[in-house]
C-alpha cells in the first residue's frame, strides 16, 4: 500500500503543474498517468498564451487567465533554474488578422474588450502589418486584409519542453511518478482517498482528478457526475531554415507559431469525433490551404509532421476546478479546452490553496461541478 498527502490523477500539464506546486508547498505527492507522463494532449498544444489582466476584470475566467499569465514568466525562470531546461517561453507578441467582414467585426468587438481591461492592443493597416511582418507581403494579407491588431504581451511557450521541465522538476522535488497506471475509480473512505488501478491500490489524504478528456470516465465510475467533451484538434509542422515571422499570427481559430529554430507550427482544425486521435487528409489539406494562402513560400514544402490531440471541453466552456460536491478530499481540475497550457499555473495555485487551507488566489465558485 502506497500513501501520500496528495495523489494527482493525470500526467499532462495540469497534473504536473498541480504536483509541482503541491510539493513545493511541502506536500508528499504521487502522480498517476494512464499513458506516458508529459505526452498526450498537452504535448500537442501550440502554446499560445494570449494577454490577460486579472487586476482589471471581475470575470472569473479572465481572472484565472490573468493570474496564469502573470505566473508563466515566474515559472519559466524557476523551472530553468531548477532543471536547466528552457521551456521556450517567449514574449513575442501576437498579430490578429481579419480577412472577412465577420472577422473584422469580431476583432473590433475584441478591441473594446482589450480597452476595457487595459490590455495593450495597437490597430494596424496593411502597410503597418507588412512593415512588422514582411513575409506576409506575398499572401492574402497583402490584398484582403480588413484590419489587424498587434498584442505585444502575447507569449508563446514550447509545450514539449515545458512538460519536460515540469516532469524533471517534479522528479527532483520527490514527486512519485507512475506512468502506464490507469486509475479505474477513486473512493473517499473516512480520512483518506483510495484509488484503484489495475496493478495496485493507492491511498492519500486527498486526490485531484486532472485527467483531461479522460476525466469524466473516471468520475462516472466513482459516482461523480460531470461531462467532458473531447474535441479533436489537428495540427501540422514545417521545418524552415529560419523563422519566417517574429510573432504569433492569428486569424480566427487558425494560427502560425514560429519557433526560434525554424520550426513553424500551423493549427488548428477542431471537431467532435469522440476519442479518435488520428489525423485526416481533409483536415490537413484545409490547414495547408490556409497556411499557403497566407504565406505562399510554403507551397513547395511538405510538413515534417502532423498530429492530433483531444481538447477537454465543457458545455459552457468553463473548466471544472475545485472540490467535488459532497466530498471532503476529492478535487477536480479539468475541462480547460484550448487553454490548458495557459491556465495551468493559475489552476495549480488555486487547487493547492484549497488543499492547504491558504486564503484563495481566486474565487472558484464559477468553476464548480454542478453549476447552473
UniProtKB/TrEMBL annotation:
GO terms for molecular function: flavin adenine dinucleotide binding; glycine oxidase activity. It comes from Roseimaritima ulvae. This is Glycine oxidase. GO terms for biological process: thiamine biosynthetic process; thiamine diphosphate biosynthetic process. It comes from the Bacteria. Pathway: Cofactor biosynthesis; thiamine diphosphate biosynthesis. PANTHER family: GLYCINE OXIDASE, SARCOSINE DEHYDROGENASE-RELATED. Its EC number is 1.4.3.19. Gene3D superfamilies: D-Amino Acid Oxidase, subunit A, domain 2, FAD/NAD(P)-binding domain. One of its GO terms (cellular component) is cytoplasm. It is an enzyme of class 1 (oxidoreductase). NCBIfam families: thiamin_ThiO. InterPro entries: FAD-dep_OxRdtase, FAD/NAD-bd_sf, Gly_oxidase_ThiO. Residues 5-354 form the FAD dependent oxidoreductase domain. Keywords: Oxidoreductase, Thiamine biosynthesis.
